[in-house]
Amino acid sequence: MPWDRTTLQALPSSEVTHLHLLRHGKPDTDGQRRCYGHTDFPLSAEGRAQSAAMIAWGVGHLPKPDRILSSDLSRALVTARTLAERFDVPLVVDPDLREQHMGAWEGRTWSDLTDEDIAQVRAFWTDYATMRPPGGENLDDLSTRVGQALERHWPVIRGGRTVVVAHAGVIRILLCRSLGLPVSEALRFAPVPGSHTWLQVAQAGVVVQTLGERPLASDPGIVGAAMRAQAGASDRPPRLALAGSAGTGKSTLGRALSRRLDVPYIPEGMRERLEAGLNIHALGPGAFQGLFMELWQEKIEREDAAIRAHGGFVSDRSGWDYAAFRLLYRFTSDVADVAAFFGQVRARSALLDRIIILPWGVIPLQADGIRTSNPWTQRLFQSSLEGLVSREVPDRIAAFMPALESLEERVTWVVDLLTESGVAVADRPSL
Fold first, then answer.
1. Domain assignment of residue 182, yes or no
2. Phi/psi of residue 380, nearest 5 degrees
């Protein structure tokens, strides 16, 4: 949300420069741990997949940049070229954004280097900020080179949004320079291959908005079908999901919107089971996780059935509610499993016209024997949910409801929101 005109007069500057730093995918080093910087290794199969995921994520989630700035090495340039084409913005290639030059060590395996001269390799890792490989650069050299490149481009990129596709060393240096840290602290940052780091640069300082974020995997078929379904929203009934902690009024609002919009209401499966007598406290970790996935699949099936039969629905809880639950309960640490689940949640979001996030604390939290009335538990969940939605859901889908207390005000607000968004709304009385 932009600052109001009065507040802007008090700020030293409202200008913000956005730098989206993308690290290239994993290069093909023949399965060996090699020392490389300027050596132009191509992307491996895994690296190409990481590049494709980053491109898809970037085009779908990043605001359109003014330009793409890239290292000239192919492992970065392949991503940069495609992003420039997809965003339809200029591509600027700068060799000074290359990785640290490792001199005579370039392309050799670390095991060979260590066998040959363990003392020299040990000296490098002991003082990597100032130690130069034979004929190569140290981190001070890299910082000078990257800093000069940034100064050259700054008059053009200042106040705008630029995507920089580069290398781990370059990103580490930009972080150190931005935060006023010595280059000896560079290895505290570990941007993995195919990751996104977002810097917001202002006169008052730099904010690290995102550090080393990796795009989540999504089934292209699911995403494609979801995006096709998003088209034609003005010619079909609305598709809504209500999000928020227990006690925010989702069920009551959902039923009222179902009547007002003339679409099916899809209740929350967990609440149905609790009302039927389920003792959730008797479940072990495995059974609880199994129930969670059962509820998730049930939600998908109910929404798909409503789309086939009616074209639209109002669903009690969004996929991001389930994602917040999963994070809070830490069901699994398997990266592939988590990525697949979050990718599916994102794909389901694309089916929706709107996700309405209800405010917490507006309606008094009451004990009803079904849900927990512990305000700490509910507030923790709400904070996690709002953070996920803010980061992951496009503004055209996410909508945070203001602090409206009455049901009629809430229904009117949602209907007005849909109408302004070009979504077809049945001509029926408010309630």
1. yes
2. -60, -45
Residues 6 or more apart whose Cβ sits within 8 Å of residue 299: 266, 269, 315, 317, 319, 322
Structural domain containing residue 388: 220-420
Q: At what angle do helices 375-392 and 319-329 cross, to 10 degrees?
A: 120
- 118 domain-assigned: yes
H or E element at residue 199 = strand 196-202
3-state SS assignment for residue 327: helix
Both 37 and 92 in one domain: the answer is: yes
pLDDT one digit per residue (tens) for the chain, 431 residues = 455 555 555 555 568 999 999 999 999 999 899 999 999 999 999 999 899 989 988 887 888 999 999 999 999 999 999 999 999 999 999 999 999 999 999 999 999 999 999 999 999 999 888 999 999 999 999 999 999 999 999 999 999 999 999 999 999 999 999 999 999 999 999 999 999 999 999 888 899 988 998 876 554 444 444 444 444 556 789 999 999 998 899 999 999 999 999 999 999 888 888 888 888 888 888 898 889 999 999 999 999 999 999 999 999 999 999 999 988 888 876 777 887 888 889 888 888 999 999 998 887 655 555 555 567 888 889 999 998 898 888 888 999 999 998 999 999 999 999 998 888 787 665 55
Helix (H) or strand (E) holding 161, with range, is strand 161-166
Separation CA 222–CA 224 (nearest Å): 5
- Residue 429 in any domain: the answer is no
Q: Nearest-CA neighbor of 141 among 190, 77, 98? A: 98
Q: Rounded to whole angstroms, how far apart are CA atoms 396 and 3?
A: 21
Beta-carbon contacts of 380 under 8 Å, excluding residues fewer than 6 positions away, are 328
- Amino acid symbol at 39: T
Q: How far is CA 176 from the centre of its chain?
A: 23
3 state SS of 349: helix
The last residue of one of the domains, among 213, 230, 245, is 213
Phi, psi for residue 79 in degrees, rounded to 5: -75, -45
**Which positions ≥6 away from 69 have C-beta within 8 Å?**
80, 92, 94, 97, 153, 157, 162, 163, 164, 165
Residue among 136, 107, 108 at smallest CA distance from 124: 136
Domain count, the chain: 2
Q: Is residue 301 a part of any domain in this protein?
A: yes
pTM of the model: 0.66
What is the rounded CA–CA span in Å between residue 170 and residue 163? 13
Helix (H, G, I), strand (E, B) or coil at 94: coil
